[in-house]
Specification:
Shape: globular
Keywords: Methyltransferase, Transferase
Number of helices: 11
InterPro entries: NDUFAF7, NDUFAF7_sf, SAM-dependent_MTases_sf
Number of domains: 2
Protein name: ATP synthase beta subunit/transription termination factor rho
Structural class: alpha/beta
CATH topology of the largest domain: Rossmann fold
GO molecular function: protein-arginine omega-N symmetric methyltransferase activity
Largest sheet: 9 strands, mixed
Pfam families: Methyltransf_28 (PF02636)
């Protein structure tokens, strides 16, 4: 009699090790994609018990002001009733809940769509917003009606390709497992394949060891989303930490239990991100025919939308929370907190009104 087979599920480290053993080193983009897919698919990473806290979890003011910003654009652009609220990577749904509440106060009650693949987060989101429609990708969003899109800390978690300067050429940066006795430890190194296409002119003479990041996944999603807005009408607000490129440097980082961690240790157990190239995102939107605002700091963006007045109102309404409200306002807007590192940009259909919060753009 044959013995029954026992199925043993491999850990992510074991699966990656097998891939490397079978096919050689893997790209940083592949490593990052595998790690984050496992990470977000197996937990709720937000809050004090998780690994990090995002702006919507800090204060209701963040989502409220973004909702009012989108409602204002919608009203000044004709107020079509069949609008869709779309959020990419919506976390627990906190931002959407706050935004939809402020939209409703302005007479806008859009259908709600989340682009989210994590089963655990989908469950949390549905509990908070029962009428939400979930999507695995931008491609399955409704094809009729304007899209009012929010992407808060979405693009930073998408995989990026990394190149490294070796001598006078660029090579793919790859990931290996250097020591079989440390099964959860991986390491980056320069690959052997020379890369010649897609190198910006500013990096042509970069010194030895320079890292160049190419956000191919983010570019593709941004372009697809921008084409949808160009076809259907609408606007998008993107908030993330990042820079105005092109630029060089290794921005890959890991966060675990609210502390920085080694991104190449225990893949899938920490949040892997890179800084977002806002110039690239804006170029994708322009390529699709959208108007693009200037990139502004999150602090300036929220102040222009009225966070100071809203904070004062909340403090007067609930005096017992005045210190909490002030701490949240500082964290969201101050230069020594999230106000400068985090940035905001908007895309708008060419026939739609200019968004508030980006004056001078």
């Amino acid at each position: 009699m044959r013995a029954a087979r026992v199925s043993v599920e491999l850990t992510l480290s074991e699966r990656l090790a097998r891939q490397i053993a079978a096919g050689g080193p893997i790209s940083v983009a592949h490593y990052m994609a595998e790690a984050n897919q496992h990470y977000y698919g197996t937990r709720d990473p937000l809050g004090a018990a998780g690994d990090f806290t995002t702006a919507p979890e800090i204060s209701q003011m963040f989502g409220e002001l973004i909702g009012l910003c989108l409602a204002d654009i919608w009203m000044r652009s004709g107020g079509r009733p069949e609008a869709h609220y779309v959020e990419l990577g919506p976390g627990r749904g906190t931002l959407a809940s706050d935004a939809l509440r402020s939209m409703a106060s302005a007479g806008l009650r859009p259908r709600v769509h989340f682009v989210e693949t994590s089963p655990s987060l989908r469950e949390r989101q549905s509990a908070l917003i029962p009428n939400v429609s979930h999507h695995d990708a931008v491609s399955s969003l409704p094809e009729r009606g304007p899209l009012l899109v929010v992407a808060n800390e979405f693009f930073d978690a998408l995989p990026v390709r990394q190149l490294i300067r070796v001598g006078n050429e660029w090579r793919e940066r790859v990931v290996v497992r250097p020591d079989p006795d440390e099964p959860d430890r991986f390491a980056p190194m320069a690959g052997y394949r020379r890369v010649e296409s897609g190198i910006p002119a500013m990096a042509a003479d970069a010194p030895e060891g320079t890292i160049l990041e190419m956000p191919l996944a983010g570019s593709a999603i941004a372009l697809e989303l921008a084409h949808r807005i160009a076809k259907q009408g609408g606007a998008a607000i993107i908030v993330d930490y990042g820079y105005e490129g092109p630029a060089t440097g290794d921005t890959l980082q890991a966060v675990r239990a609210h502390r920085y961690a080694d991104p190449f240790l225990e893949p899938g157990e920490s949040d892997l991100t890179t800084h977002v190239d806002f110039t690239m995102i804006g170029n994708m939107a322009r390529q699709a025919g959208l108007r693009v605002t200037q990139t502004v700091g999150q602090g300036a963006f929220l102040r222009q939308l009225g966070i100071d007045a809203r904070a004062d109102q909340l403090s007067r309404t609930t005096p017992a929370r005045a210190e909490e409200v002030e701490a949240a306002r500082h964290r969201l807007t101050a230069d020594d907190a999230m106000g400068t590192l985090f940035k905001a940009m908007a895309w708008v259909h060419p026939d739609w009104a200019d968004p508030a919060g980006f004056e001078g753009s």
